[in-house]
Structure formats: C-alpha cells, structure tokens
Amino acid sequence: MANSCLQLSGFLVSFLGWLGIVIAISTNDWVIMCKYGLNTCKKMDELEAKGPWAECVISTGLYHCYSRSQILDLPAYIQTTRALMITGSILGLPAVAMVIMSMPCISLGNEPQASKNKRTILGGVLILIVALCGMVSTVWFPIGAHQEHGLMSFGFSLYTGWFGTVFTLLGGCILTCCSLESSSSRPYQDNNRFYYSKQGSGNPPAAPSTNHAKSAHV
Predict the structure, then answer these.
(1) pLDDT tens digit string along 132-157?
(2) pTM for the whole thing?
(3) Alpha helices, DSSP H only, in 75-209?
(4) In CA terms, which of 46, 123, 181, 212 is 20 to 30 Å from 132?
(5) Chain-centroid distance, C-alpha 119
(6) How many CB atoms are closer than 10 A to CB 88?
(7) pLDDT computed for residue 176 by the predictor
(8) What is the spatial order of strands in the sheet that 54-59 belongs to?
(9) 65: closest CA among 29, 102, 89, 99?
C-alpha cells in the first residue's frame, strides 16, 4: 500500500513538472530586459521580454513579438535551450505513459509485478533526464541573456521552468527509488514463501499402528 501511494505521488509530481517544462518552452517571458533600470524602464514603457523563440516589446496597451527564425545567427545559449527543452518535452510523453501503465490499478494480462517495476524505473529515469534538460536550460538562458543584454529581471516562463525542473527531479527520484526498493525486496519475499511452502508440504509422522500391538499381545 505504501509503495502504491509513493508511486502515485511520484507520478502526480512528475506530471505537474512536465507540464511546467512544456509551458516554459511554449512562452517567451523568460527574461525582462531593460537598458537603464527596471523601474525607469517601466515608467518609460521600454520593457522587452525575451524567450527562446521571440523577443517581445511590452508597453501600455501593446505586446508585440517578433520571432527569431534565423537559427545560424542565434547565440549558443538560445540554440541549446531550444534543443534541450524540446528534448525534455518529447521525452516526458513516453515517460508519463510508462508510469501510468505500471500503476497497480492497471493490469496488462497476467503481467508480473517485476515487469511493472522495471517499467516504472525506466519512466523515472526518463523523467530525471527531462529534469536535467530543464535544469541546464533554465540556468544557462538567463546567464547568457545577462551577458548579452545587461540588466534584466526574471519572467513568468523562467519561473515556470524552474518549477517544472524541481518537480520532475523530485518525481523522478520518488519513482526510481520506490521501484528499486520494491524490486530488491521481491526475491526475499519469494524465498520466504518457498521456504514456508516446503516446510508445510512435509508429511506428518504416521501414528503407530495399534493392530500390530494387539496381535502381539494376544
């Protein structure tokens, strides 16, 4: 029962983290750029938001974005962020599917529990890879943007990416550790079951025959 609760908790946390990664790569409010100072730029309506796919101008009643489509001219941190975040978003789909199919409430024929544990471990490892992709992207992007443009603040998309990274890291650890512990305890339980069944299958000692004793007495 405890293992099932841990597996369900790990799945929910991992799924929320994966959604955070997908939302982060789908939006462009990663960093807020400003040439003078954040408060000064707010008064002058000269804020700019930058993401992996576009740069946006933010002012009163205006939110205009232009995409950055020339891949070869982009800085290395933007290209790396795109590649890693797309990889993490794609890997999250089979990882979530594997964890769902290994739930105790779902049965695929007469599948043994060991196969479900292996599937859960594989899904947890994929989720940890998603967390690694999100970690590198959400740390490298603001550092690269700060070196390129100077003053800035963090945007909604970057916070969402950090949220997704932490949750996928936590969920992947829960899924992997609880499945490894369950797999290691399974052979011990099977050996005990075999031992007790072997002890119980022994024939009880036969009662001494009374007919032979009576005939000897006569």
Answers:
(1) 999 999 999 999 888 887 767 888 99
(2) 0.76
(3) 76-101, 113-149, 156-200
(4) 181
(5) 14
(6) 31
(7) 87
(8) 62-67, 54-59, 47-50, 31-33, 152-154
(9) 29
